[in-house]
Each structure stands twice: as C-alpha cells, then as structure tokens.
Amino acid sequence: MKARTRQIAIERTALIVILAIYLMPVLWLVTTAYKPPREIFSSPPSFAFTPTMFNFQRIFELFDVWALLKSSLIISLGTTVLSLLLGVPAGYALARSKSRYAILVAYFFLAIRTVPIIATLIPFYLMMRDIGLLGTWWAVVMINTTLNCAFVTWMMFSYFRALPRDMEEAALTDGCTLWGSFYRVALPMVVPGIIASALFCIMFSWNDFLTPMFLTGPDTKPLSVALLAAFGTKDITWGTLGALAHFSTVPIVLMALFLNRYFVQGLTRGVQ
Amino acid sequence: MTTTSVGSIDLAPSRASGLRFSDRRKLFLVALALPAILYVVLVAVWPLAQGIWYSFFDYNLLRGGGRRTFVGLDNYIALWADATARRAVINTFLFTFGAVTLEFVIGLGLALLLWRDGRFNRICLAFLLIPVTITPIVVGLIFRALLAVDYGFFGYYLAEWGISGPRGFLANTTTALPVVILIDVWEWTPLVALILLAGLKSLPTDILEAAAADGATALQRFRMVVLPLLLPTVFLALVLRVMDAFRVFDIIFVTTGGGPADATTSLMLYGVKQGLEFFNIGFASAIGNLTILCIALMCAVFTLLIRRADVRANER
Questions:
Q1: Which residue from A43, A69, B8, B93 lies 20 to 30 Å from A260 (Cα-Cα)?
Q2: CA distances from residue B211 to A38, A260, B113, B114 in whole angstroms, order as listed
C-alpha cells in the first residue's frame, strides 16, 4: 500500500509540473493585459510587473468593445439556437427510425462535418453577395449552422440511441401523442446531451474566425475578427491586444470550466 | 412493415387521419429529420456542387468583368503545375502527420497519467482542457508574441542564445512549419488525451486485474492488454484529429500568414488567398475540391484500417 501512495504522489507531482508548464502561455496572455506598456516591451523580458488597468481603458477608447461583443453573441447564439432546433429533432428521428437509410443519413451529417470550409465558403460568399446578405450576421449564422447542425445531429443521434425506447412506448400506449413522446418523454432525458451540444455550438461559433472575416462588415464583425484587424494597427500593443483577447477567451474558458462535466461528455460523446 | 416493439399499438384506432400508427410514426420521424436535411443540402451541399462546377471555369471577379469561361480541367492542370499549390499539399500533409503523431504520443502519456479516477485528476483535466477552448486566433497571437525575438519570452532567449537565429523561428523557412505544428500540438493534445482517457476508463477492469494477478509487468500489461483493447478509441482520436488538422487555417494565418516563402502555406490558406483575396474563383474552387478529395481519401484509408483491426480483434 505504501508503494501505491508513493506512486500517486509521483503522478500528481508530474501532473502539476506538466500543467504549470502547459498553461504558461495562457498565464502570459492574462498577465500581459495588466502590464503597463513600458514593461511589456522590456528587453530582456521579465515576468515581474506592476498591475494596471490601463490596457482595459485603452481598448474601450480604441474599439467599440460592446458592439464587438454584441456581434460575437448574436453570431454564436443565433448559430446555437438554429443548430439545436434543426439538429436535436433530426438526431431523434435518426435514432428512432427503423429504416436502413437512417444510418446512411447519420453518416451524411458526419461527412458534412469534415468538409473543409473553403470548399463551401467561396460559392456561399457569391451567393450571399447576390442576395445582398453579405456583411450581415445572417450570412455567418447560416453557414456556421451547416457544420454545427451536422455536429448536433450526430451527437444527439448518439444520445438518443443510448436511450431505451420503453418509456416512449409506454407513453404512447397511454395515449400520448407522437410529438408528446418526443418532446415530453425523450427530450427531458437527454438534457445533458443538449447542454453539451449547445456548449460546443457556442464555442465553435464564438471562436470562429474564417467565415466572419469574409462574411461580416465593419459594423457586424465579431471579436475574433477585430482581434486580428487590431493587430496590424500602430496604437495596438500586446497589452491592449491581451486585454481585448480577455473578452474573446474568458467567457468560453469559464463556461468550459464550470460546465466541465458536460464539456467532457460532449468531447467524448460527440465523436463516437 | 411489421414492428415488434410497437406491435400492440398498431391495433389502436388512429385518430383523425386514416393512417396506420406505424405509418404515422414514420411520417412523424421524417418530418423531424427533414428540416435539418433540407437545410444542410441547401446551405452546404448546394455550395459544394457549385464549387465543383466553378472549378471547370476560368472565373475571376477582378478580371474580364467576372465572366465565366469554360476551360475544362485547366484549373486542375494549373494546380498541378503551380509550385505554391504543390508546396501547400506537401505542407498540409506534413503538418497533419507531424501534429497528429505528436498529439497522439503526448496525449496517450497524459491519458495514462490521468487514468486514476479521483477529484484531483478531474480538476487537472479541466485545466488541461483550457487550450482547446481558447480562440485559435488568440492561440496564434499568444505564440507569435512569445516567439517575437525582441521581447517574447521564448523568442528573445532563443535568439539571444543563438538557437533560432536573429530573426526567430517563425521567419526561418526550415523551422517555421515545425513551430506551427508545435502550436497545434499545444492546442489539441488535451483533446486527444481526453478521448483516450475516456477509452481507458471504459476498458473492462476484470481483464486488467487478471493480467496484473498473472504477474504481468506494467509495460507488458500496457502493450499486450491495454493497447489492443484501446485500439478503436485510438483510431477515433486519430481520425478526428487528422480531419481537423488537415483543415488548418487560423493559427498559420496569424503566426506566419503562410510564409516565409510559402514554407507554411496550407491548402486552406492557399484556397482562401486565391478565392477571397484574389477572387480567382475557378482556381480556388479547384483547391477546395482537392482538399475534399484528400480528406475523403484519408477517410477511406482509415475505414480500411479500422475494418482490418476489427477483423483481427475478432479472430483473437
């Protein structure tokens, strides 16, 4: 038993050391935002500094941070709601269908998820230009929903498949409608799956950069696009960039940490 | 169609509609699935088809008033002859292979380290997953800053001690790609570790205990028992990461922009540059289709490998 305790101690020390090294870049990003400009460019670089909120004041002077946040929120929530509305019922239908085509359709959704966005983005861009949606949030939500809805469908397919049919059958014999057997019986039992799906849709679309870069305009661009655009301008230091990056990373990191159970579930279930 | 589980319900008289219950149920399921299918066909498959169509045309928005001229396979021939495109194909495969290999090796080590169940390990895992959640653009920016030779935490010393040369790793044609690979490894190894960990935790404990009771050493147990049983999960993690790594864009775009001298240009990057910066739609579509083709081929190879592994597992 003593050997076992020692082994656990060694494992834990190793984990802590690895974690400390691993998260250093994140720590750097966080601390940079609180550094006064002079100390960021200290050469040789140093970790010591006097904390300041200067950079956060600067980004509110330089950017319309609220507008950027609003864009990011609209894009990610829009994508998430639409993807769930389309994907959850589809996942249920595919899991409950006895047709031999159901599994083919499920694989079709899986295949859509592996499509490189460049192949669809160019024709989609032209399509949006022709119908005048270029530069709107709608364009981004629409194209992001394809990948995310495919993801949700596949993930919910796996959740519903693992759910025994008995409850729905019992409800149906008791006179429940078909819609009721889905909405009131099956759906409440896969709430963890729905939370995990939503978490992923929010994360994917919040972090997405390529599609909004080309599909949004100056008034509709989200944080991710603003971050890179800001990078080239002369008023921007690593400190202000770090402060702006706070807004783009902190919400998702916190969400993943607090809803860790669902996050882990989603990562492992969503791919199976 | 006769169903076993709802057989009794078939006898129940259906309300309003004169349809049998099993038919109504089929219609109901189709109605639930149809919106998603229609949506994906309209917004993903239709553009994909258009992309294939465009790739047979000389179609440039900035030239000739954006007129389309049919040129057959010329775009694909041009792609074959194009030095940057060839470089991009090689880079993308090198990137994918390098990144996924490292992610698998390190991820497996981390998964084994985290295997023991407990509060401590769960908390470690939660923190370990932070890189996965960070905006890829921000990941790129972090490493670009850390590797900057004049004030970056790594870059400064790497240059100072003469390891990276005066302009840094990202500005060097031989080191840029490996560095970009390492950034991807940093971001995605936790995901691989997590998937492998889930696989480890679902292994039947009695077999592992039996092996330990039979006196197998830790290494023997790992090689002869754990690894073969883990194989399906390993394939899963590899497929997932290969598909994603092959579509790399964000971190390369931010750190090197494809340079220096195309040393880090990936297929996605080249396609985006040609299509959405130069508006060379025909040529860019050909790049996009080539990317899909590569992914489909790799999918096929993986499916074959998985099937073979399954057969072998069943023989055992």
A1: A69
A2: 61, 33, 19, 21
Please give the structure tokens belonging to residue A26: 């994140």
CB contact set of B280 (below 8 Å; sequence gap of 6+):
B60, B274
Look at residue B110 and tell me if it is in a domain. yes
ipTM for this prediction:
0.89
B 99-118 residues with CB below 8 A of A? 110, 113-114, 116
Which residues 239-278 of B have a C-beta within 8 angstroms of A?
A: 240, 243, 246-247, 249-250, 253-254, 267-268, 271-272, 275-276
Query: Is residue A149 within 8 angstroms of chain B, CB to CB?
Result: yes
Split into its structural domains, chain A has a count of 2
Cα nearest neighbour of B5 on chain A? A169
**B172 and B242 fall within a common domain:** yes
B164 within a domain of the structure (yes/no): yes
Q: Which domain holds residue B192?
A: 84-315
For residue A55, being part of any structural domain is answered with no
Q: Do B291 and A116 touch (CB under 8 A)?
A: yes
Maximum CA extent, chain B: 84
CB atoms within 10 A of CB B9: 16
Residues 119-148 of A with CB under 8 A from B: 119-127, 142-143, 145-147
Q: What is the pLDDT of residues B199-249, one digit of tens each?
A: 888 888 888 888 888 887 888 888 888 888 888 889 888 988 998 999 999
Going by C-alpha positions, the residue among A255, A267, A248, A251 that lies closest to residue A207 is A248
Q: Are residues B110 and B208 in the same domain?
A: yes
From CA A213, how far away is CA B272, in angstroms rounded?
11
Tell me: do B272 and B130 sit in the same domain: yes
Segment B258-294, tens digit of pLDDT = 878 889 999 999 999 998 888 999 999 999 999 999 9
The answer to the question of residue A191 being in a domain is yes
Q: What is the CATH number of the domain that holds A200?
A: 1.10.3720.10
Residues of B in contact with A117 (CB under 8 A): 247, 249, 268
Q: Is A79 on the interface with B (CB under 8 A)?
A: no
Question: If you count residue pairs, one on A and one on B, with CB atoms under 8 Å apart, how many are there?
Answer: 270
Domain at B226, CATH number: 1.10.3720.10
